[in-house]
Amino acid sequence: MKKIFITSYLAGTRAQFCAFMTKNNVKPGKILVITTAGNVEDYTGYIDEGKALLTSLGYELTILDVARESTAVCREAIMHAKIIYVTGGNTFYLLQELNKKQLLSEIKASIDNGCYYVGESAGAIILAKNVNYASIIDETSLAPDLKSSAGLGLLDFYPLPHFGEEPFTQDVEKTIVRYGQRYDLRTLNNHQAILIDDNSQALKGDY
After folding, report:
1. What domain count does the chain have?
2. Which UniProt keywords apply (predicted)?
């Protein structure tokens, strides 16, 4: 059972998020927010906006930075979470820190057991089998200890966020040119979301 919400920008997909949760009879409650991807970014306003959105909807946020917390604390938080929101930021740094604590298997197991996963930008890209296609959008140099670009492998496609959105427009187009024949890239702008409900998929645009 997979319940996954994929977005470029959570604050820009409020209506889709609410509709997805309502459809699945999920009422606002506790949500684990993993903000690690933003650690190496100069601008993180989108994280604040995402948190503000969730708070306004009545969610109780638990913030987790896997780079700073112990493996035990991270595993405990992930294991008990009913909803996990992984924010945007640098994909490779996020993957590096998750791998350091061996948390990919923990997250995957939680999703397989019914935990809802909300992936924003980098948090969406790590759902793919491999994240190397994000190397044009994100700097790989920010993750010097990353040994493997293998992601969670929960999707049979590759999310490509920020399509047509500045300042990512050119890098997204370059990514499509370089990787479009190799991977099934699914583009989405900042007001679209890909909803995965078990084995069904749907792209939802502006409401």
Report:
1. 1
2. Hydrolase, Protease, Serine protease
What's the CATH number where 34 sits?
3.40.50.880
CA–CA separation, 26 and 84 (whole Å): 13
Q: Which of 8, 110, 149, 162 is catalytic?
A: 162
Q: Residue 110 has which token pair?
A: 């939680």
C-alpha distances out from residue 15 to 9, 61, 86, 109, 195, Å? 12, 19, 19, 28, 12
Three-state secondary-structure class, residue 37: helix
Is 121 catalytic? The answer is yes
Q: Is 0.85 topped by the overall pTM?
A: yes
Point out the catalytic residue in the list 8, 121, 149, 191: 121
Burial 113-128 (b: 16+ CB within 10 A, else e): eebbbbbbbbbbbbbb
Enter the DSSP assignment of 26.
Answer: P
pLDDT at position 207, please? 40
Stated as kind and residue range, the H or E segment containing 160 is: strand 158-161
Q: Determine whether 162 is an active site residue.
A: yes
Per the CB < 8 A criterion, the answer to whether 91 and 126 are in contact is: yes
pLDDT in tens, 23-46: 999 999 999 999 999 999 999 999
**Sheet of 116-120, strand order:** 60-64, 30-34, 83-86, 116-120, 3-7, 193-197, 200-204
Question: What is the extent of the structural domain holding 87?
Answer: 3-204
12-to-15, 88, 174 alpha-carbon distances in Å? 8, 13, 24
